[in-house]
Design brief:
Elements lengths: L3 H4 L2 E2 L8 E2 L1 E3 L2 E3 L6 E6 L2 E10 L3 H19 L3 H17 L1 H12 L3 H21 L6 E4 L5 E9 L2 E5 L7 H12 L3 E5 L5 H13 L7 E3 L4 H10 L3 E7 L2 H13 L3 E5 L5 E4 L5 H13 L11 E5 L3 H13 L19 H17 L2 E4 L3 E2 L9 E2 L2 E4 L6 H4 L6 E7 L2 H9 L3 E2 L1 E5 L3 H10 L4 E4 L15 E2 L17 E9 L16
Parallel strand pairs: 2-6, 9-10, 9-12, 10-11, 12-13, 14-15, 14-22, 15-20, 19-20, 22-23
Antiparallel strand pairs: 1-2, 3-4, 5-6, 7-8, 8-25, 16-19, 17-18, 21-24
Helix pairs in contact: 2-8, 3-5, 3-7, 4-5, 4-7, 5-6, 10-11
Bound molecules: 2-aminohexanedioic acid.
């Protein structure tokens, strides 16, 4: 269907052997310098290898930054609407490849097919939205305090941007970063998560096919230490845009701080749904199941806590647990499956460790709690959807990001206590309030300490036309998408044009009369 697949360098495997894929640097598919590769596996069936990818070295990163740096000048001077046209075209190519990429995503990271289609759709939406930015990219004009003088501020690109992305939204999240970076006139070196290089490569192919000039986008796969950190260290890389764990983000942000380069970090969350005594309970149950167990709980925005008013606590718990117990778990390729595997064996282990922690802390395990590794689950990375009740807000399972199918239910006595518990973690990404009372809804909007607030909807489901990001340990103050999308990728340049023909002194000539 696409011509781009012909351009990626592939080693055709024999029989059912998986193929090998290269880096994309300076407009060419190139093997890593060290010649080493790593495999990407299907978490629903670990005997299936999706492909072999370049285990790159710092030398490969250097080559990619060389290429990005070399391409910068011409790209920066390409008019923004022309840059945007390429992004729009990439969006249309993503549209034609949506099903193919979504199916690859299910195989590569395990989310169910409906959600995988949504992931690709989010990138398509982002392409369309950001393409419009090519004809906006608003600056400011302001009056000068002096006569015959013009004052304005315009945006300028930064240069080479390092983009480091996670596996949980392997197409959507790269699009949040790469499209706005490119439309603003920057060039990019893209390092995707080692769990999802295939999805990332397909995303890159769409941009290549759309006609992106050589060197403008470079793709380097491999580890955080050999690819990610060298990208951070390279002085020519002016900004790192990263989504990942708070631990990784803190390291990158700290180093970027020392090197005086920008970093935009989108990190962990410990999101909560608050359920008030007047809530529509059927709506709550559907929302809590979707928010807690969508993507097997592996969203930064996952509703891993449900804070319930005691007047409705038992009713909530009974209905919620019944619904969670009925969830169909399995390979996300089956359209009737509701919860897929988690991304890999390490994730199964770390999720399960939290289950053990919850039990030790004295929370009441009311549903799930086990690793699934028998029968149809034997080759996969499955963990049962798990619910803890009577969780205390201070317990580790109510404070730390688990990133898996585990939900903590916390009883509270009042609206005020619900707000306090919701706000009582180190994170601040997404919080939600279910109530029929408009006054309380607005009070919640005001008091909830998070970058995203939902009323009568779960904590997941952000749309790309609003800013995305969080406060506290969730990030370092940046927002992706929406009107903020290009902020992190542009520098302000303030310009004064004096057409008076004489030296005019600001702050001095203006106050002559005094
Ligand atoms: C994430 O939570 O990791 O808001 C990203 C959502 C998606 C993006 C989530 N649009 O659920």
């Amino acid at each position: 269907m696409t011509t781009s697949t012909k351009t990626r360098e592939e080693t055709q495997g024999k029989g059912n052997m998986p193929q090998s894929y290269s880096n994309y640097i300076g407009g060419r598919w190139v093997k890593p310098k060290g010649g080493e590769t790593f495999a990407s596996y299907n978490p629903a069936n670990q005997s299936e290898i999706i492909g072999h990818f370049a285990l790159s070295t710092p030398e490969d990163v250097k080559a990619a930054v060389d290429a990005a740096q070399a391409a910068f000048d011409a790209w920066k001077h390409t008019p923004a609407p022309a840059r945007a046209d390429i992004i729009l075209k990439a969006g249309y190519i993503l549209e034609t490849r949506k099903e193919e990429i979504a199916r690859t995503m299910v195989r590569e990271m395990g989310k169910v097919i409906k959600e995988a289609r949504g992931d690709v759709q989010e990138a398509i939406d982002m392409a369309k939205y950001i393409a419009g930015e090519g004809r906006r990219m608003f600056g400011h004009t302001v009056p000068s305090e002096l006569p015959n003088k013009f004052a304005m501020a315009i945006r300028a690109p930064l240069g080479v941007i390092g983009v480091i992305t996670p596996w949980n939204f392997p197409v959507a999240i790269p699009s949040w970063k790469i499209f706005p970076a490119l439309v603003s006139g920057n060039t990019v070196v893209f390092k995707p998560a080692t769990d999802t290089p295939m999805c990332a490569m397909m995303f890159v192919e769409c941009l290549i096919e759309a006609g992106l000039p050589h060197g403008v986008l470079n793709f380097v796969t491999g580890s955080g230490s050999k690819v990610g950190m060298p990208l951070v260290e390279d002085p020519r890389v002016r900004c790192i845009s990263v989504t990942g764990s708070t631990e990784v983000g803190r390291k990158i942000n700290g180093r970027c701080g020392e090197l005086m380069k920008r970093s935009s970090c989108e990190l962990g969350g410990k999101n909560a749904i608050c359920v008030m005594e007047d809530a529509d309970m059927d709506l709550v149950i559907e929302g809590a199941v979707w928010g807690g167990f969508g993507t097997a709980g592996q969203r930064c925005t996952a509703a891993s806590r449900v804070i319930v008013h005691k007047a409705r606590y038992k009713e909530f718990l009974d209905k919620f647990v019944a619904r969670v117990k009925a969830l169909k778990i399995g390979d996300g390729m089956d359209p009737t499956v509701e919860v897929g595997p988690v991304v890999n064996k390490d994730q199964v282990k770390s999720v399960h460790e939290y289950v053990e922690i919850g039990k030790k802390e004295g929370a009441k395990l009311v549903c799930g709690g086990n690793i699934l590794d028998q029968g149809e689950y034997a080759n996969g990375c499955y963990h049962e959807p798990t619910v803890f009740a009577d969780v205390k807000p201070t317990m580790r399972i109510a404070q730390e990001e688990i990133f898996g199918p585990v939900v903590s239910v916390i009883p509270v006595e009042s609206f005020e206590e619900a707000l306090e518990v919701a706000n009582g973690t180190e994170y601040g990404l997404s919080l939600s309030m279910y109530t029929q009372d408009v006054n309380r809804a607005f009070k919640a909007i005001e008091e909830l300490e998070s970058g995203i607030v939902y009323i009568n909807a779960p904590t997941i489901g952000a749309e790309i036309q609003l800013p995305f990001g969080g406060i506290k340990q969730t990030g370092n103050g940046h927002r992706e998408a929406g009107i903020t999308a290009i902020e992190q990728f542009t520098e302000w340049k303030s310009i004064y044009i004096d057409y008076s023909g004489r030296l005019q002194k600001a702050q001095i000539d203006t106050h002559k009369a005094e």
